[in-house]
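Subgroup meeting minutes
Present: P.N., E.W., G.H.
Scribe: E.W.

1. P.N. recapped why we're keeping a running log of single-chain structure predictions: easier to compare across weeks, and new members can see raw inputs and outputs side by side.
2. G.H. added today's entry (114 aa).
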Amino acid sequence: MEQVPVENKGKSPIYVGGVMIPPGETRHFSDDLLPPEFRSSAPVVNDELADPFAEILDGNVHEVTGALDLLNHEWLVRLEAMELAGKNRKGVLAAIAEEILRRANESAAEGGEA
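Output recorded in log:
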C-alpha cells in the first residue's frame, strides 16, 4: 500500500495515527490509517459545506475554549492537531490539554469509586 508523507511544519510536536512527529520531521503512513485531513485521496468537499472544526478554530481563544465541552475525546485530539498545524495558539492548546486532563481525572475518579 502506498505510504503518505506527513511533515510537521509547526514548532510543536503533532500526533498522527498515534505517532508523534517532532517539528521539522516527516513520517510516512498508510493512507487508510490517516485522519481525513492528511489523506492523499481526500474526497472532494462541496464548498457549501464548511468544516465544523475549521469554523471553531476561526474564533478567538475565548470562543474556541467555550466550545471544547461540546466535543468528544477524538474530536478534541483532531482539533488540537488542526490548531498545531494552523494558528498554533498557546491559549487554545493549553485549554484543549486541560480539558483532556480534566476528563481523564473525572474518568479515573468514577472508576475508583465503582
